[in-house]
Design brief:
Order of helices and strands: HEEEEHHEHEEHEEEHEHHHHEHHEE
Oligomer: single chain
CATH class of the largest domain: Alpha Beta
CATH architecture of the largest domain: 3-Layer(aba) Sandwich
Structural class: alpha/beta
Strand order of the largest sheet: 6-7-10-5-11
Shape: globular
Number of helices: 12
Number of domains: 2
Strand content: 15-25%
Length: about 400
């Protein structure tokens, strides 16, 4: 039969009797992790173990974690130290990181509470190169859940079968190291409705939002889009600059995380991750404090050259937009091919809003002029740029 594929077509398979199998799944109030020796049930207040002999529902074999669970103290876990460091050793941010871990471990979701977790860097650089620990973060989830990654630099939503490497039992899908101007809007339907997986030469498989994987995006840039639709579908995480290409987790711990652990360290890791799971079920996904996120978004939007140019603009004075454009090109002549007068004017407004100024606009002799005003100022300086 394996050599005669016609027997596996729908018209033949429909003659076989079906059997409904009830599978143990995470609920809104509780989650389950399956180890070789027991099931760990996590709720907002308790962590308890269940014998497989007492399990009334079925369990997917592929979801069993290939080690034994052992109760222990998690406070000396190396991974706990790693999370403390990437949170900038800030207590509020550290707690938010714990809820992110719990959120990604918890498979229960609806279209109302499902968000993509977006990781980028706290450090501001013209040539960002990562190395802040984003990969180690999602690889920790891989030790407990079915995680698959897609190469963010080459991924294209418009290509045929973009998700053909994704299995139907994937629980966390990572778009790793996505390029600048990643089309996040194309993920809207995946986040709120579910994912459709198409394999070449086979029927497509539609997984609704309750069965589809949770989404992680890692990037050295920022994800554009600040409308209500974007904000409802994303949760942004800013990695501290504790780790870099000059100081890695290997330098700190003296060995690789995960690969060089003994049984005791694995036990501490499991217990710590489960504690994060419990904290998420108790608190939900709490707000993540950020340091430079909005600043990096502005630089990615208007460019660091325009930002630096506006830093030298006099506040409380009207400037003709044409003069701003000409003066910018005098300072950065290499940007002539990439900059228009409208770009400079719109960036001027974005810069002013970011800095907390009131942006005023007026016309003089048919020519537009703009000014940045501190909110406490009542009157604007009457000085004006000459139009030409």
């Amino acid at each position: 039969m394996s050599g005669t594929l016609k027997y596996f077509k729908r018209e033949f398979l429909s003659m076989i009797k079906t059997k409904n199998i009830k599978v143990m799944r995470d609920t809104q109030e509780a989650g389950y992790l399956f180890y070789r020796n027991c099931i760990v049930k996590v709720s907002d207040e308790t962590i308890e173990t269940i014998s497989y002999d007492d399990a009334e529902l079925s369990i997917w074999k592929g979801q069993v974690i290939d080690r034994e669970y052992k109760e222990c103290d998690h406070h000396k876990s190396e991974y706990r130290t790693f999370i403390w460091n990437i949170s900038g050793q800030n207590q509020e941010k550290y707690k938010a990181f714990q809820t992110v871990i719990g959120y990604l471990l918890h498979s229960f979701k609806t279209n109302a509470n499902n968000k993509a977790i977006i990781f980028n860097d706290e450090v501001v650089s013209e040539n960002p190169n990562g190395r802040s620990g984003k990969g180690l973060f999602w690889n920790a989830l891989k030790q407990m859940k079915k995680v698959q990654s897609l190469d963010g630099k080459t991924f294209d939503f418009k290509k045929s079968f973009p998700y053909q490497s994704v299995s139907t039992d994937c629980q966390v899908l990572v778009f790793d190291d996505v390029k600048k101007n990643f089309d996040f809007e194309s993920l809207f339907s995946v986040i709120t409705e579910g994912i459709t997986i198409e394999y070449k030469g086979k029927d497509s498989i539609k997984l609704d939002v309750t069965e589809s994987p949770k989404i992680i995006i890692t990037t050295n840039y920022t994800i554009k889009g600040d409308s209500a639709s974007f904000n409802a579908r994303k949760y942004e995480v800013e990695m501290s600059s504790h780790y870099s290409d000059k100081y890695t987790p290997i330098d700190e711990f003296g060995h690789q995380l995960f690969n060089d652990w003994d049984d005791e360290e694995w036990a501490r890791f499991d217990r710590y991750m489960i504690e994060c799971y419990r904290i998420y079920l108790k608190l939900g996904l709490i707000d993540m404090p950020t340091v430079n996120l909005q600043y990096r978004k502005l630089l990615d939007d208007i460019s660091i050259e325009l930002f630096n140019f506006f830093e030298g603009i006099e506040i409380g004075t009207y400037h003709f937009t044409k003069n701003l454009f000409d003066r910018f090109l005098e300072m950065y002549p290499e940007k002539r091919k990439f900059t228009t007068q409208n770009k400079v004017t719109s960036s001027f407004k974005k810069y002013g809003e970011f800095k907390g100024y009131e942006v005023k606009s007026a016309k003089s002799g048919g020519i537009t002029k703009v000014a940045l005003i501190k909110h406490e100022e009542e009157n604007i300086d009457i000085n004006e740029d000459e139009p030409f």
